[in-house]
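Q: What would this chain look like folded?
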Amino acid sequence: MKRVLLALLAASPFAIGYCFHYALIQFNWAGTVVLLLSFLFLIYWFFAGGLAAKITKIKREALLIGNSFSALSLVLIVFQEVVLRRYFFNAVGFAPQMFYLPLVPLGTNIASVLLFFIPNHPLWATVVLDFLLMAAAYYAGFSVSRKNIET
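A: My prediction, written as structure tokens:
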């Protein structure tokens, strides 16, 4: 049962990404609002890592299950962009993009600073950065919560 809860928690960015996509189109959000929502999503993912620490005590299990959908989405996006040079026109092409959509504005801003001398950086570079941000936030949330539980 613990693993099912962790898997549902790990898959939650899909639903958040779809809601984010709907809100962007419906309300025509842009600029600072979208960047603020990216920060809020990162804070959510920090607390998701903390919740994982309360569900299981095994760090490896929590981190592997918690970042499994993130890693799978990363592999699918990099494969489609680098190898195929196009996206699939089905759920396999659309869902991984929705997974990372809440962090794309923040990741794009950070990537534009890191890749300053490259005029057009590819989207997969932003997605790799988003994966690292998500993994770091999840790990930090897990570690802080585990530290609070032990003391």
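Residues 49 and 138 are 4 Å apart (CA to CA).
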